[in-house]
Amino acid sequence: MVSYVKLIGLLALLSLGNCEKQKMEKLVGDDYIQFGIYSGNCSGKCQIFYLLTENEVFKDELYLFSVIDKKPYVGRYRVLSNELFENVKQLKANFPMEILEENKSVFGYPDAHDQGGIYLEYRKGESHKFWHIDPVKERVPEYLHSYLNQLDSAHSILNK
């Protein structure tokens, strides 16, 4: 009987996760970028993720990112103010399209020696990719440097 109850509980949790994913897809559609920073060697909220659409910016409040997962991150998002959106909306227009041609999804050694990592995700129609990026710029392609600076500024603006 106990195993049966555990199985029902597990199935309920799995379906809730699927509902969250469907809700997120309905909420933001198929055109967004998601970006965040993470650190494996910390306590508390060790990741901060944002999702940017054409009209809004959202902050993740689930905090369940794991670098071990080999799939795009799906969080639980809260819409932020239009003022904050106006301050970061240029990130979509400035997205480094060269990265879409890359065959790899990891640049440098993100969080290998407690320096943290940067998560970047791009979705537009059928094109859907994500990357883990080392914040040490010498370890990533030069065409990403300016955009990484913009992401850093966006984090400062959004995380006040």
Beta content: 15-25%
Main-sheet strand order equals 4-3-2-1-6-7-5
Main CATH class: Alpha Beta
- Helicity, as a percent range: 25-40%
Order of SSEs: HEEEEHHEEEH
Architecture overview:
With 160 residues, the protein is an alpha+beta fold. The protein has a single domain (29-158), classed as Mago nashi protein (2-Layer Sandwich). The chain is 32% helix and 24% strand. It has helices spanning 2-28, 82-88, 90-93, 145-158; strands at residues 31-38, 47-52, 57-60, 77-79, 106-107, 117-124, 127-133. Strands 4-3-2-1-6-7-5 form a 7-stranded mixed β-sheet. The protein is globular.
Task: Please outline the helices and strands.
Elements: H1 2-28, E1 31-38, E2 47-52, E3 57-60, E4 77-79, H2 82-88, H3 90-93, E5 106-107, E6 117-124, E7 127-133, H4 145-158
Parallel strand pairs: 5-7
Antiparallel strand pairs: 1-2, 1-6, 2-3, 3-4, 6-7
